[in-house]
Write a structure and sequence with these properties.
Layout (H helix, E strand, L loop, with lengths): L6 E4 L6 H9 L1 H4 L5 H5 L3 H7 L2 H7 L4 E5 L4 E11 L4 E8 L8 H14 L1
């Protein structure tokens, strides 16, 4: 899995569910997600589907959990997702607000694209 100077990008684990659901439901973060705040109040099963095994097997890739190395804290998701309706792949990310403004999405995004190329 990709790793950067400050981040680990890894598959989600069941233990991530609670922290991820909290990040995803914050109004500051949710406003940038498809469906906005209303859509971000995902159930546990909805969150599992977002980063579950099916996403990896259907398209060969899906977003990773983003873990800050020093704190070992889950801070969001980042990675690639295939959009069948336009037959394109997008780079997507969601980083928790306390971690904004540090270039982490750019750092992780570069690692994800490099990983895909390799």
């Amino acid at each position: 899995m990709p790793e950067t100077q400050r981040l680990y990008l890894r598959p989600f684990e069941p233990a991530d569910l609670e922290a991820y659901a909290v990040i995803r439901s914050r109004p500051s973060t949710a406003r940038f997600l498809p469906g906005g705040e209303a859509g971000a109040k995902a159930t546990a099963s909805g969150v599992r589907t977002l980063w579950g095994h099916d996403a990896w097997t259907a398209g060969g890739y899906a977003p990773w959990a983003v873990v800050e190395k020093i704190s070992s804290q889950l801070i969001g998701h980042l990675g690639l997702r295939y959009l069948p309706e336009i037959q394109e792949t997008e780079l997507l990310y969601m980083i928790d607000e306390p971690w904004w403004g540090r270039g982490l999405a750019t750092e992780g995004g570069r690692a994800a694209v490099d990983f895909a190329r390799d």
